[in-house]
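[step 3/7] fold_predict: job queued, chain A
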Amino acid sequence: MQDLDALRYPIGAMPVAPPLAAGQAQGYVAEIAALPRKLAQLVASWPDDRLDTPYRPEGWTVRQVVHHMADSHMNAYIRTKLALTEENPRISPYEEGEWAKLPDSALSITPSLTLLTVLHERWVTCLDALTDNDLARTYYHPGSERTYSVADVLALYAWHGEHHYQHIYRLAERNGWA
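[step 4/7] structure written:
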């Protein structure tokens, strides 16, 4: 049996983002832009038995992970826009584990793959236009009791997308589906 931490964090735990180096923001935006297509290429044609397989013991199923990514990235998009248009707004956290139990988490993954595609198109359009001042704008997250800059959000969601993609990809590798 594999180490649960390696299954839980296939690319390592979320790093604390240091200040962005020159050009790094564009790299993060490119990763965010590429995620929907990359994810769809991996899972769009999978049958239900694969989609309903947990990526690790006591973990979410592939289906739940795909729906979670849509939920999480919708929240990130809204939080980004709030940070860009308000002075350090207090955002609303959500219980992602509880969201993963709601009835829509049992749907086909097609709506979430479509949502990720169109959502990322809009989000990346905003991200591509960011100035250094925009990257420094912030929001306050009461759940983590932390202020996040838009630059932090770029790093976090580039990591988040790859983190969950690797959950699914490595499951596929272990089971001979890749």
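[step 5/7] annotate
DSSP finds eight helices and two strands in the chain.
The mean pLDDT is 94.
exit 0
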